[in-house]
Amino acid sequence: MNVLVIGGGPAGMMAAIKAAGKNHHVVLLERNEKLGKKLFITGKGRCNVTNSRDISDFFEFIPRNREFLYSALYTFTNEHLMSFLQAKGLPLKVERGNRVFPVSDKSYDVIEVLRKELYERKVDVRLHTRVVDVVLEGNTIRSLVTDKGTFTADWYIFAGGGSSYYGTGSDGSLHKLIEKAGHTITPLKPSLIPLVLREGFPKELQGLSLKNVRFTLKEGKKELFTEIGEMLFTHFGVSGPLVLSASAYYKGGDATGSIDFKPGLDLKELDSRLQRDFVKYQNKDYKNSLTDLLPSKLIPVIVELSGIDPDKKCNSITKEERMNLARLLKNFAVHINGTKSINEAIITRGGVKVTEIDPSTMKSKIVSNVSFAGEIIDVDAVTGGYNLQIAFSTGSLAGESL
């Protein structure tokens, strides 16, 4: 069978490898000048290929449509992926949060394993080839029109990514063609993206990186996300691993965030700590007494929001004032009113509607000779290697199921 794979990212490359392994003749179309352009920049160029947790634990890190991914993730697990890469000569290592990276810390090495496998399986890779139209015949695709001519195949696997990072080629244009073929595209929105705050103080805190803090996201009284980790203040709001994961649960509009600067201490323990510091600096002004407890950049903001006179001597601070300060440090409220643009998102939320795809094969229920793989589908996860595993797993299943 002649198979045409559209998209040379992790999902498309894995789909092409698996399809070629079933003795199909495979052509892979990639609009960029090289394969894996987005893969190259993942994990800050180090490529967090997967996560080493038990595959059954993956689903709690997938906010939406997790049931759709059962077949894909169990058919080609993280263990399968790691074994595949290591068997091809790529040693791996596990870091904090069970994140899996190549020992070399180079995403290029992951791409090179996949590229060599495509070559060995005689996949015809066509770079600089952008799909611009789809030619339909009833409920089948007859051919694809590209800027390099028309391609015809028996089967088409769409793995062209989402709408984030336009420069890597995933600009959402393929979704329009899939919609033309009869599929529903759920709204494309940014996920794993910095959050924009209503408050003005982020400008004062710009560049401040915090470790081992708890960030909680709420919509009204409903808690959407809470976790301990690292975050970063920017000139417009908040970012960093903790916030990016929280953004996967953000539904848009107004929401509230809460930062617990001392999650290792309960309110009573934090109050005891403040008492010790205030005794230590009893003759100092309050504004100069928090240097042992907080980063220097954060102190002026906390002092102002605490409502305690900055020039008040520590030995004059009342119990009520001290408790209010402790509560502020345990529940530092921020008001979220949006995200950065989808072009700055690590991944896209939305895509081909999952109810229109057979989860056991990745085949379309609407177009008789089409499969889907990767971010083009309405599936996404938090940070930590889960999204790349989804790409590899859905790509593997799409290629294997032909």
Which stretches are poorly predicted, pLDDT < 50 over at least 5 residues? none
Alpha carbon gyration radius: 25 Å
Please provide the count of β strands: 19
Strand content: 25-35%
Looking at CATH, which topology of the largest domain would you report? FAD/NAD(P)-binding domain
Overall 3D geometry? elongated
CATH architecture of the largest domain: 3-Layer(bba) Sandwich
Distance between the termini: 9 Å
Largest sheet: 6 strands, antiparallel, barrel
Q: Which structural class best describes the helix and strand composition?
A: alpha+beta
Strand order of the largest sheet: 12-15-14-13-16-17
**Overall residue-averaged pLDDT value:** 94
The CATH class label of the largest domain is Alpha Beta
Fourth-tier CATH superfamily name of the largest domain: FAD/NAD(P)-binding domain
Residues in helices, as a percent range: 25-40%
